[in-house]
């Protein structure tokens, strides 16, 4: 194969004639796809082709340097939602990565696990073998944990438990060695309200206030992505990547997947390649259901409207879409510290000085992405508000059929009912939201346990036409109540003496408003329905509950076809998803190896 300079095994469309055969073809080279490909090619006898829609990034500052973070060049653009009915009919951008490495090349690098209960709920919903206890070895396997300098850790309230971490995995995980003075105000203010610091939020109890771990290599203070491992292993002759190419559908003989059809994004030339063992779909939670539907896997009635022949009538494909809702609360200050989380943007002298420090290998503001502060607060509902009982009652009363519409498949409704009863049961035991102040102009509120559900549906037979993406944001009114609760807690935090001393004055979304109805109207206006954490559109649940894959990631009603990305989660995780995507893909890789005697 050609050597294209960057890595040895990048191949071109022209090199794959019809009839080329690999053991495994991975559709989508994002976090899950590359993780699985990396593990499968540990065996030199196993051949793997990854087909990725996006290009290789160029290792530019916008990708590598946290403080220069700018994901736009490698996002799917323009990718928009359908009008969000409960948000006044507005359409919103849908951020997700389109590059070798997927989300891991464009994400904000926060790297943490969610509550144990959350993964245990996956198992309850049908994902046998995916509980917290089952996944913990895979969380460890995926990371190289780099503990912080002891003195720095003591000064900045960073605590951790090494027994829960891995020290030999592909993702370099570290804490930023730099922070702004405002973080101390935030920490003290939060703790003064009785919110507890978490010892190590990666211990299955991701609650309280804690310092965020990041996927950053501490030696270079640069991004650690899923691509890094591929670069390191580029000498593997059994591992090929075909970039800038769209998988347009899975090919079948009967119900057995035999390969894929793919299209070069440069000139639209179409071809096919065969997989002798398995086709593994990992195109992310928006595009995985698109590929499945285009391949004849989906609601037969819907596929028929586009003249697509059904291979497996799977009503759950593209259903159950979930994401985190984000609300930015902006402030001015009468007496904030300098520097703070806004200073890199607002003060060129400071930015230049910090860049020099960064380039010289010293702790610097360029070690931070700035989108969120170093600290985050994550809490169950009863710790956000005294109204948790009435909110749970509201959720219980809500009829999922009203949420999804009368035409929704019965299996999907049944699955949603099961999800809701678990979510309501655990609403005061697992984190339902998060809040972080970047010490500058911005507080971010994350609503992480939405009851609302959305969907991804193709409305054309071309892979180049974006599917209809509907988050259904706030279609369940419970979600607005939870959001309001977190927003009000944010006001409490910003009013504690530790933060009030900086003179914060709310600028958006609801300055000066006290009336609940009026505040909620403003929250709806300011809300974004996606925090780039789309998931759950090919859920690992029973088929009669709207599930799409079994607990071994295999697509129901087919042979030799699996899905390994965040699409398979029944429920969204409560923090940043990437650590869970890596862990789930590590597990999926073992399951795949196991079924072909490769373990
Ligand atoms: C801007 C942004 C910020 C984020 N910040 C954080 C954060 O700080 N912390 C955190 O934990 N998570 C964060 N995330 C989320 C996290 O990165 C994702 O949850 C994760 O990448 C999902 O992994 P995946 O393997 O399911 O899909 P992805 O990593 O998205 O990979 C899917 C890949 O498939 C490719 N693909 C799609 N269609 C096709 C096709 N037809 N043919 C071939 N290839 C295709 C895509 O181009 C993509 O590269 C962020 C995401 C974004 C976009």
From TrEMBL:
Residues 284-298 form the Glucose-methanol-choline oxidoreductase N-terminal domain. Keywords: FAD, Flavoprotein, Signal. This is GMC oxidoreductase. One of its GO terms (biological process) is secondary metabolite biosynthetic process. FAD binds at residues 99, 247, 577-578. The keyword Signal applies. It comes from Cucurbitaria berberidis CBS 394.84. One of its GO terms (molecular function) is flavin adenine dinucleotide binding. It comes from the Eukaryota. It holds the Pfam family GMC_oxred_N. The lineage of its organism: Eukaryota, Fungi, Dikarya, Ascomycota, Pezizomycotina. Its cofactor is FAD. Belongs to the GMC oxidoreductase family. The keyword Signal applies. InterPro entries: FAD/NAD-bd_sf, GMC_OxRdtase, GMC_OxRdtase_N, GMC_OxRtase_C.
């Amino acid at each position: 194969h050609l050597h294209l300079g960057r890595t040895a095994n990048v191949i071109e469309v022209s090199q794959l004639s019809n009839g080329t055969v690999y053991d495994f073809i991975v559709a989508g080279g994002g976090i899950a796809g590359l993780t699985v490909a990396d593990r499968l090619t540990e065996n030199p006898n196993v051949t793997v082709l990854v087909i990725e829609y996006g290009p290789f990034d160029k290792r530019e500052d916008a990708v590598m340097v946290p403080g220069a973070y700018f994901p736009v060049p490698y996002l799917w653009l323009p990718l928009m939602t359908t009008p969000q009915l409960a948000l006044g009919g507005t359409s919103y951008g849908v951020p997700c990565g389109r590059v070798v490495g997927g989300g891991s090349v464009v994400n904000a690098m926060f790297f943490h696990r969610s509550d144990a209960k959350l993964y245990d709920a996956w198992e309850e919903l049908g994902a046998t073998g995916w509980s917290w206890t089952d996944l913990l070895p895979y969380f460890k396997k995926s990371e190289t944990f780099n503990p912080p300098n002891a003195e720095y850790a003591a000064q900045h309230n960073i605590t951790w438990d090494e027994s829960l971490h891995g020290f030999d995995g592909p993702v370099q995980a570290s804490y930023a060695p730099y922070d702004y003075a405002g973080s101390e105000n935030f920490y003290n203010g939060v703790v003064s309200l009785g919110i507890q610091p978490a010892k190590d939020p990666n211990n299955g109890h991701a609650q309280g206030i804690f310092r965020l771990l990041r996927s950053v290599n501490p030696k270079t203070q640069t991004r650690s992505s899923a691509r890094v491992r591929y670069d390191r292993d580029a000498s593997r002759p059994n591992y090929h990547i075909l970039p800038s190419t769209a998988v347009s559908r899975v090919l079948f003989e009967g119900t057995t997947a035999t390969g894929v059809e793919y299209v070069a994004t440069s000139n639209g030339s179409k071809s096919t390649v065969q997989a002798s063992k398995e086709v593994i779909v990992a195109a992310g939670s928006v595009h995985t259901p698109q590929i499945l539907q285009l391949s004849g896997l989906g609601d037969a009635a819907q596929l028929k409207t586009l003249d697509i022949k059904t291979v497996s009538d799977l009503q759950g494909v593209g259903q159950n879409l979930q994401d985190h809702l984000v609300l930015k609360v902006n402030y001015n200050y009468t007496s904030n510290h300098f520097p703070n989380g806004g200073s890199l943007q607002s003060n060129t002298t400071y930015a230049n000085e910090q860049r020099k420090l960064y380039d010289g290998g010293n702790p610097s503001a360029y070690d931070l992405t700035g989108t969120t502060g170093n600290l985050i607060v994550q809490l169950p509902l009863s710790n956000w508000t005294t109204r948790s009982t009435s909110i749970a009652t509201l959720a219980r009363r809500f009829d999922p059929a009203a949420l999804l519409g009368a035409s929704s498949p019965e299996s999907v409704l049944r699955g949603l009912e099961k999800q809701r009863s678990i979510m309501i049961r655990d609403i005061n035991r697992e984190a339902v939201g998060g809040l972080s102040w970047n010490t500058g102009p911005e507080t971010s509120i994350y609503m992480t346990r939405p009851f609302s559900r959305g969907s991804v549906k193709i409305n054309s037979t071309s892979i180049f036409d974006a599917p209809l993406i509907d988050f259904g944001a706030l279609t369940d009114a419970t979600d607005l109540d939870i959001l309001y609760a977190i927003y009000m807690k944010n006001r409490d935090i910003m009013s504690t003496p530790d933060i009030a001393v900086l003179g914060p004055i709310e600028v958006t979304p609801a300055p000066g408003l006290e009336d609940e109805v009026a505040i909620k109207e403003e929250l709806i206006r300011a809300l974004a329905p996606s925090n780039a954490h789309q998931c759950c559109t090919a859920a690992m649940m029973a088929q009669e509950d709207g599930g799409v894959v079994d607990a071994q990631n295999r697509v129901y009603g087919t042979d030799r076809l699996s899905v390994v990305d965040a699409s398979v989660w029944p429920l969204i995780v409560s923090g940043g998803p990437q650590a869970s995507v890596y862990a789930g893909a590590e597990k999926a890789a073992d399951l795949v190896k196991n079924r072909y005697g490769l373990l």
